[in-house]
Automatic annotation (TrEMBL), chain A:
GO biological process, one term: amino acid transport
Protein name: Branched-chain amino acid ABC transporter permease
Assigned keywords, A-Z: Amino-acid transport, Cell membrane, Membrane, Transmembrane, Transmembrane helix, Transport
Family in the record: Belongs to the binding-protein-dependent transport system permease family. LivHM subfamily.
Gene Ontology MF annotations: transmembrane transporter activity
Automatic annotation (TrEMBL), chain B:
Topology term for the membrane: Multi-pass membrane protein
Gene3D superfamilies on file: P-loop containing nucleotide triphosphate hydrolases
Name the UniProt record assigns to this protein: ABC transporter domain-containing protein
Organism of this sequence: Pararhodobacter aggregans
Keywords of the record: ATP-binding, Cell membrane, Membrane, Nucleotide-binding, Transmembrane, Transmembrane helix, Transport
Pfam families noted in UniProt: ABC_tran, BPD_transp_2
Chain ranges of the ABC transporter domain: 336-580
Phylogenetic classification of the source organism: Bacteria, Pseudomonadati, Pseudomonadota, Alphaproteobacteria, Rhodobacterales
Annotated SUPFAM superfamilies: P-loop containing nucleoside triphosphate hydrolases
Subcellular location: Cell membrane
Length: 285, 582
């Protein structure tokens, strides 16, 4: 392999890993903090990905996609939390089923509202950055940078801030946290909405690199899920490890064999982990 | 029995009327959803009866369909060859499912989301393979160009075959509910831990349920191949799996007919309305969400409740009891011995080289302050917690590496500290399950008579006027007061006539009179069977009345053994109980 090909492969793998980490972040947050398997996660990604489609349709500038995305996803998440999720805290299996029903509802709703056709979202800016002799799309490099910075910021915030402390208290012992004067209902609602907003933002950022259609959530959900399973549910570090393994595996198998092999490899790895190491690679403590 | 025949005859008659009343095309449409409905019945069986949700059952439907299509192509429609081949495919699918479930459930995976996600991943893999290997499956275009089963016209002669499958599956599923197998499944969902202590291996029970679910799905799939004349990756995909779950949920997963009803009603209505009513699919999804949140029993649950309110349920007559066959737990195996057993959990050493030899017969009371490791010792013996060092032996046999469900076959039975009974089942059903424990073999699970077995210990308890069980046999065990629950659990523990009985705080939450009764029952059982009994207890009056021998545990070790009087004189014991240091 020439050094150019190697650099390109490394960039592609990094891109895959960053995209996966971004996709899985919201799901990991909701599961880690609330013990809810949000099967509708992918559909919040889908909703976010429709934001640039809608702003283009309405003739707004591309940057308007950000507030549109936050508003649309945030409101949906708020309503969903009130009507569905609130009754399901600490009921993991029921939450899986209910959010799955919700996922179908959102997918069918999106088909009704936006139509079933595939949409293409143009890159907000074209342009290629030269790395050595290899040219790589600047947008992807920007996303990689944003993901890395975002992860670091989130990790620091969770460890250092007062809200982070309250969240950690709630995860550790919800009853005691409530007894200590923490409004866990509001905190839980906030955590769920935040997780969905992250999913929406992931959709927004990745929209130019995916085809946007109502059923796109399933693929996003599955890839996020399996990232979390391999890494270990519930921690940022685990999520990063999982994204690295799954993204690396997929990039490697796709480069050397085929797209199908990459997909199958990820599925088989996920099954092995669910079976033999349900706690994933990264363990707490 | 009569009601089952009535329901199934009515079902068969109603379905056979469809082509006559609505024409062959309607029958063809209904036929498709009946096949989907049978697969949904399979999902409902695993989910409602087995308590675990398979998210990828289209895997077996699709394997059945592709398999049948390949067989039909190779044999050109020869009837008996085809039927035999389809039965074989269904058996293979069942065996595959059995193996998958056995592997998955034997580990740490409970009935929770982990299993569902694995089945989801499996169906995604299958769909991907179906799409990308055109040589084998015809790829996206599908597998076609084979004759239908026995040359039957999908718009005519095939329909009665489909109805026959529907009735056969519905009949089998309703019958299983009335057989020991159905009772064991209900016990599994109600209280897995108790079922395991009664000697049933939960992972095997679940594997049988999943095998049944998969076999049913494969049978439906194999007829689907003849019905459609083409098999595409859609038959093995995630979307179909998802719809099977929705139909089972909305129709009612706890009833054999519910998923069938759901599939035919929703599926057929969807195919008719999907194109004309824009919000139809949104509506179906909303109904599914509402069912999950508010009506977990689905439509059939509403129907059953309606029937019950109208007073139409028939009371079941009680058949006279039959004597139960001998129990495997009753054979003597020698005394229990713990030797240098060490066990830590969460970084805390709970058993610290604990050594204790039990007498082969008689009552040993284990006492000691809270946290001494008494209950943990029982957990170590019954393999609820893994032992890190040392040996636990029963006579010449080492119990190391054995699972909890194997303990009963070694003659060990246990009453838990918090009384553990099948709360969702009636007292009678609790005792029926206990009568099967240690006595049931192979095909007994599919014969009705084992449900009438009565065991000597339970017969004695029911005949005892002081024991408060005989009066309320048809009440749910979950509604019993604490004291009565203790007696029920005692009855279930003693029912298999174990040689080693472990009673963890049997008198907790009991009145003095009830405590006395408990003492008498334990004594009686010991004298009648010559068994060994270990009792963990804090109540010294009870210890005084019951113990042939006493062992004192402290900080995970045996501090003293002997008669209660001897132990009381021991200065070490006095120091521990007076709050001094060892």
């Amino acid at each position: 392999m020439s050094s150019d090909a190697l650099v390109l492969f490394a960039l592609n793998a990094t891109w895959q890993i960053a995209a996966l980490a971004l996709l899985a972040l919201g799901l990991g947050l909701v599961f880690g903090l609330l013990r809810i398997m949000n099967m509708a996660h992918g559909d919040f990604v889908m909703l976010g990905a429709y934001a640039p489609v809608l702003t283009a349709q309405w003739g707004l500038p591309p940057l308007a996609a950000i507030p549109v995305c936050l508003l649309m996803v945030g409101l949906t998440a708020l309503i969903v939390e009130r009507l569905v999720i609130r009754h399901l805290y600490a009921r993991m299996f029921d939450s899986l089923l209910a959010t799955w029903a919700l996922s179908i509802l959102m997918r069918e709703g999106a088909e009704l509202a936006f139509g079933p056709q595939f949409r293409n979202v143009p890159l907000p800016f074209e342009g290629v950055t030269q790395i050595g002799t290899v040219g790589y799309p600047s947008y992807r490099l920007l996303v990689i940078g944003l993901v890395a910075a975002g992860f670091l910021a989130l990790w620091l915030w969770y460890r250092r801030s007062l809200t982070g402390l309250k969240l950690r208290a709630m995860v550790d012992n919800p009853t005691l946290a409530e007894g200590a004067g923490i409004n866990t209902a509001r905190l839980s609602a906030g955590a769920f909405v935040a997780g969905c907003l992250l999913a929406g933002l992931a959709g927004l950022l990745l929209a130019p690199t995916l085809s946007v259609y109502p059923g796109m959530g399933l693929d996003a959900l599955i890839r996020s899920f399996f990232t979390l399973i391999v890494g270990g549910l519930g921690t940022l570090e685990g999520l990063a490890v999982g994204a690295a393994v799954i993204g690396g595996l997929q990039a490697g198998l796709s480069a050397y064999l085929s797209q199908t092999a990459g997909y199958l490899g990820v599925l088989i790895l996920a099954i092995l982990f669910l079976w033999r190491r349900p706690d994933g690679l990264y363990r707490h403590r | 029995m009569g009601s089952i025949v009535t329901v199934n005859l009515a079902l068969a008659a109603g379905l056979l009327l469809v082509p006559w009343l609505g024409g062959d095309f309607l029958a063809w449409q209904i036929g498709l959803f009946l096949l989907y409905g049978v697969a949904a019945q399979g999902v409902g069986f695993a989910w409602g009866r087995g308590g675990f949700l398979p998210l990828g059952n289209a895997l077996f439907f699709g394997l059945g369909a592709y398999g049948a299509a390949a067989v039909l192509k190779a044999t050109e429609g020869a009837l008996w060859v085809n039927l035999a081949a389809m039965a074989l495919i269904a058996l293979l699918c069942a065996a595959l499912a059995f193996g998958i479930a056995l592997l998955l459930f034997r580990g740490r995976m409970g009935s929770g989301p982990g299993f569902s996600l694995v089945t989801l991943a499996l169906v995604l893999i299958a769909a991907q393979i179906a799409e990308t290997t055109p040589a084998l499956t015809g790829g996206f275009n599908g597998f076609s160009g084979y004759p239908p089963l026995a040359g039957l016209d999908p718009f005519g002669g095939l329909y009665p075959v489909i109805v026959a499958l529907v009735v056969a599956v519905t009949l089998s599923l309703t019958l299983i509910e009335r057989l020991p197998a159905g009772l064991i499944l209900r016990g599994l969902v109600a209280q897995e831990e108790r079922l395991e202590l009664l000697g049933f291996a939960p992972h095997r029970v679940k594997a049988w349920a999943f095998a049944g679910s998969a076999g049913i799905g494969a049978l439906a799939g194999s007829l689907y191949a003849s019905h459609q004349g083409i098999v595409t990756p859609q038959a093995i995909g995630f979307m179909l799996s998802a719809e099977l779950v929705i139909w089972a949920a909305v129709g009612g997963r706890f009833s054999p007919l519910g998923p069938l009803l759901g599939a035919v009603a929703i599926g057929w209505a969807s195919s008719a309305l999907r194109d004309t009513v824009a919000w139809w699919e949104v509506g179906v999804a909303a109904v599914f969400l509402l069912v999950v949140l508010l009506q977990p029993g689905g439509a059939m649950d509403l129907i059953h409740r309606g029937i019950a309110r109208l007073g139409l349920t028939r009371r079941r007559r009680d058949a006279p009891p039959l004597p139960a066959p001998p129990s495997r737990a009753a054979a003597a195996r020698g005394p229990l011995r713990l030797c240098d057993v060490g066990l830590s959990a969460g970084g805390i050493r709970i058993l610290d080289r604990l050594s204790l030899a039990l007498p082969e017969a008689g009552i040993l009371c284990v006492i000691g302050p809270n946290g001494a490791g008494k209950t943990t010792m029982l957990n170590a013996v019954t393999a609820r917690l893994p032992v890190q060092s040392g040996q636990i032996t029963l006579g010449a046999v080492s119990l190391g590496g054995k699972a909890t469900w194997q303990m009963l076959d070694h003659g060990i039975a246990r009453k838990m500290q918090i009384p553990t009974v099948f709360g969702a089942l009636t007292l009678r059903e609790n005792l029926q399950l206990a009568a099967l424990a240690g006595r049931m073999r192979g095909l007994d699970a599919l014969r009705p008579s084992p449900l009438r077995w009565q065991t000597p210990p339970v017969a004695r308890l029911l005949a005892d006027p002081e024991v408060p069980l005989a009066a309320g046999l048809d009440k749910d065990a979950g509604h019993l007061p604490q004291g009565h629950r203790q007696f029920l659990e005692l009855a279930m523990t003693l029912s298999p006539e174990p040689r080693l009985v472990m009673l963890d705080e049997p008198a907790a939450g009991m009145s003095p009179a009830e405590t006395q009764l408990m003492v008498r029952l334990a004594r009686d059982y010991q004298q009648q069977t010559g068994a060994a009994i270990v009792v963990i207890e804090h109540d010294m009056h009870l210890v005084d009345a019951l113990a042939d021998e006493v062992a004192v545990l402290h900080q995970g070790r045996t501090l003293a053994t002997g008669s209660l009087a001897e132990v009381r004189r021991d200065p070490l014991v006095a120091a521990v109980y007076a709050g001094g240091h060892k």
